[in-house]
Design brief:
CATH architecture of the largest domain: 2-Layer Sandwich
Oligomer: single chain
CATH superfamily of the largest domain: GAF domain
CATH class of the largest domain: Alpha Beta
Shape: globular
Strand content: 15-25%
């Protein structure tokens, strides 16, 4: 029986191979869309039910269930036997970790976080722009009786978090526009523009109790060799201990630490303000 030929292996089928690449495999695309829906619905920390996943994905529940069964077998999805809810499984988490580890900002930023924490004597976090917005991907906590921290995987708001302000200030509206519009509500657009302009001028985003009245935070941008924002270095702690003034010692030290990471990424910008 002749072996099935992969079009990519046969130069004579070059044109057909090109068409195959463009056509793709619809079932795989549908499955990936379903995984993205599960990931998005899980952001709140509550795993979704099948009917919710199917509705968000635009699939009949029976069809969605068939995909999910295959994903469970492959480890991409897992089901909580107590609640019947679904979440991303170990294989999906492994893929996510592997993808993140290939980002230079993650590799270099992770290596620097412990020393930044020791220098600032405050908890520090590294964030990147991921599928759903500014996402915390690494945290180093300072040792103290009561730890003030954030958690890995947390998605930060653009306006009420110092981390989010950095992404809103330096990324294009083509990237941030939809999320920004949802958060802005009735806020005067001019006021938002002025706040983000101040972040760019000061080189740091700040919040005094934006997400928690007892916690203050600062965040500074990290740039790559192209001068493009690729991450944010943030510090947070008890409001009574965090001086969020852009000219404070803490703000200067944070900017310097973010600039050092940027230089390792090849950024040739000037010294931090």
């Amino acid at each position: 029986m002749p072996r099935a030929t992969d079009p990519a292996d046969d130069p004579a089928l070059g044109e057909e191979a090109g068409n195959v690449e463009q056509i793709g495999i619809q079932s795989i695309e549908t499955g990936l869309h379903l995984l993205a829906v599960i990931a998005r619905l899980s952001v709140s920390g509550v795993a979704p039910m099948l009917k919710t996943i199917a509705a968000e994905a635009g699939l009949h529940p029976a069809k969605a269930h068939r995909y999910i069964v295959s994903f469970i077998r492959g480890g991409a999805v897992e089901r909580d036997p107590a609640t019947g809810r679904y979440r991303l499984g170990p294989m999906a988490r492994q893929l996510g970790i592997a993808a993140l580890q290939n980002l230079d900002v993650v590799r270099i930023g992770n290596a620097q976080l412990p020393s930044v924490r020791d220098t600032l004597q405050q908890s520090v976090a590294l964030a990147i722009w991921a599928y759903h917005g500014p996402t915390i991907i690494a945290v180093e906590d300072v040792r103290r009786p009561v730890t003030v921290s954030t958690r890995v995987g947390e998605i930060m708001p653009l306006l009420s978090s110092a981390t989010g302000q950095v992404f809103a200030a330096y990324l294009s509206r083509a990237v941030t526009g939809a999320m920004l519009a949802r958060e802005a509500g009735d806020t005067d657009p001019a006021a938002i523009d002025a706040r983000l302009a101040a972040v760019r001028t000061q080189g740091v985003g700040t919040t005094d109790g934006g997400m928690n009245p007892s916690i203050s935070a600062l965040s500074a941008p990290i740039f790559d060799y192209r001068g493009i924002l690729v991450g944010a270095l943030s510090t947070l702690g008890p409001a009574r201990e965090i001086d969020t003034s852009p000219t404070s010692r803490l703000a200067r030290a944070l900017r310097e630490a973010a600039a050092a990471i940027s230089r390792e990424l090849g950024h040739a910008g000037g010294d931090p303000a």
